[in-house]
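Much of what follows relies on a compact textual record of a protein's fold. A record is reproduced here so that you can trace the correspondence yourselves:

. . .
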Amino acid sequence: MICKNLQEKYSPMYHLGALGSGGLAISFFLYLNFLLPHESGIISFDQLWPILSGEPSLRMLWVGLCLAIVLILLATHFVLMVWNTREFSLYKKTEAYALLKNSSAEISLMVVPLTMAMTVNAFFVSGSLLIPGLWDYIEYLFPFAMAAFLVIGFYAMHIMGNYFTRMLLHKGYDFEQNNSLAPMISIFALSMIAVGLAAPVAMSHTREVVAIGFALSSFFATSAALLMLVMLVIGFSTMLTHGIRPAAAPSLWLMIPITTLLGITFMRTTHGLHESFESHVGPADHFVVLMALFSIQIMFGLLGYAVLKKINYFKDYIHGDKCQATTFALVCPGVAFPVFGLFVVKFGLLGNGLIQMWTPAHYLFLLPFLLIQLITLRTLFILVRRLQFTPDPAPVHSPNMQAA
């Protein structure tokens, strides 16, 4: 049974388990979305049902398997989100929460709007896969989706406003305890909101919706990019001065999901502006941007892996006795890297005619991303089992440990 009433043993970073399951669902959904023909903005029930109800074939098998994985992971996301909502409400009544709110680890609360934004995406994908004819009414749903992301955006800005105001006025930032890239979770959240607001830009045929979505998405994406530069300078300065804190070492990989979300935001907004405002960005331009961001991901991926391997993080925190809620941060790059890799293959390689679909080269480029997805899926369920289905999870030792 799933643990309940953790009280002070709870950490907001448990939200990363729900975030990871939702992100993994989206990552497997992209195989259906990128490999099957469809006229709607994303693949939907109307395109999948003829395949699933037709003659038995290899295509039916992989579509059914992929769909089953997506739906199981979406269900896991919703279950973990309900659990987190309940436990977080209880946690807010404890002394541990009061200590967190008055420490430099308060920024870890940004994981809550981050996961809420993923929930909106999960509802959107679930509706597209399970509700026949949904895309006949999609233009009516876009304003509600934008409103949901905007409310979550206000919540995120409220958390950040309180945090930065207190840091600036009371000099409360503890550089020695924040010797990691953990505060980048705030940029991660802003990027998730930006990419959500960019979805109507890419898929709507109403110019006003595209314009409003673009303006709102640009605000959060620009804010994320600006703060990313600040946090990178501060983070590396403290790490080079004090060394990296082992429990927060996975934060070195946070640049991977951040650049993934900002890259997808770019892809969505350029497509929408092309369709509605005749602003053309060609396949070669996409290739340049995608490869630049992909290079950043590889650089941070290699750096993070070298550090995590050196401190035996995988052995101690996944299979050892040091496992804690912050370990869920490992799932985020394991989701984001394959997602962005599929965009690179689809729009960078296939889009420029460098490889052809359903050829050995196509399979070869997809294979490493699939392997990373499977490793990440295994890691997620190990952590959920150890942290949320055990009688007495290890307590969080201090507020500063809660920043992933």
Q: What stands out?
A: DSSP finds 13 helices and no strands in the chain. The domain at 7-397 is CATH 1.50.10.150 (Glycosyltransferase). The mean pLDDT is 92. The longest helix spans residues 207-242.
